[in-house]
Amino acid sequence: LEEESPDSAYHSHGSSLEEEAAERTDDEEQERLLSYWQSVGRGHQVDVPRDMAEPIQQLTRNNNPQERQSIPFTLIQRKEKLGDLLYEKRQYGKAKWACIRMKEKQYEQSICLGFMKLMRYICEQNSSGLYLGITVPIVTIVHTNEAQSAMTQAVTVAYYLPEVLQDQPPHPFDSDIIIEEWPATIVYSRSFRGITNEDSIMREINLLAAILESPELCLRDTFIIAGYTNPAAADRHNEIWFLQRP
């Protein structure tokens, strides 16, 4: 999210002029960010409620690349053709994730609403009462029919818990969020940019399936969309992951 001019006001009582100005600016920023997310949400047919103002502001302030923790993995292989990277084969270790299952009419609605619920958990709505920190990518598990010709509605949006919280993850206040331990997994990852919807995801699944030498080694009906940019961004950096069979 980029900086824009604030456009709302808030007055505190009994504070110095400096404190009053600081609080007013703080609240103006919160209002501006909420308004921005609400306009983006409308584009995805998603209502962004007012109680998201504080999590959005907190996440935005901590959205510097140096503040984000990348999910660790071991690179096994890079497959290139004429200097272009076709895909990477990676090993991800066993780890705990905060997961929420969504089943909206459209994929974009599911990831936006799921991401907002996870944002609340990350931004202090947890048993530790602390801001947990952003990890990237945020991932979404999607399912297709056996023929890989259509996606099912149900998806799982998941947040990798930072290393320091892996042993004892804070408990979510939202009962829809479940802490799961995922086993170590080998994935085949291919990068793509732009929006993620049913059409673009199916296109990327079919593209990677055509490139892989042995697609039969991977699950045929379960895939992961890894998002490195928040769902409000237009030109997102994404990856499609195929999961190697256990």
Give a structural overview.
The chain is of the alpha+beta class. The protein has two domains: 14-61, no CATH class; 69-244, Regulatory factor, effector binding domain (Multidrug-efflux Transporter 1 Regulator Bmrr, Chain A, Alpha-Beta Barrel). The protein is built from four helices and eleven strands; from the N terminus they run ααββββαβββββαββ. The chain has helices spanning 17-43, 53-61, 107-122, 198-211; strands spanning 69-70, 74-81, 84-92, 95-102, 135-136, 138-143, 155-160, 178-182, 185-193, 218-227, 237-244. The protein has a nine-stranded antiparallel β-sheet with strand order 2-3-9-11-10-6-7-4-8, with helices on one face. The protein has a two-stranded parallel ribbon with strand order 1-5. A hairpin with a 2-residue loop joins β2 (74-81) and β3. α1 packs across α2 (53-61). The longest helix has 27 residues, at 17-43. It is globular and about 60 Å long. The model is unreliable at 1-15 (pLDDT under 50). InterPro entries: Reg_factor_effector_dom_sf, SOUL_heme-bd. Pfam families: SOUL. Belongs to the HEBP family. This is HEBP2 protein.
Number of strands: 11
Q: Give the radius of gyration.
A: 20 Å
Going by CATH, the homologous superfamily of the largest domain would be Regulatory factor, effector binding domain
Question: How far apart are the termini?
Answer: 39 Å
Q: How do the strands line up in the largest sheet? A: 2-3-9-11-10-6-7-4-8
User: Which geometry do the CA atoms define?
Assistant: globular
Do you know the CATH topology of the largest domain?
Multidrug-efflux Transporter 1 Regulator Bmrr, Chain A
| Second-tier CATH architecture of the largest domain | Alpha-Beta Barrel
Structurally, how many domains make up the residues? 2
The CATH class of the largest domain is Alpha Beta
Instruction: Please indicate the percent range of residues in DSSP E strands (runs of 2 or more).
Output: 25-35%
Overall pLDDT confidence: 85
Compute the number of helices: 4
Helicity level, as a percent range? 25-40%
Query: Based on helices, strands and strand pairing, what is the structural class?
Result: alpha+beta
The major β-sheet equals: 9 strands, antiparallel
Q: Regions with pLDDT < 50 over 5+ consecutive residues?
A: 1-15
Tell me the series of helices and strands, N- to C-terminal.
HHEEEEHEEEEEHEE
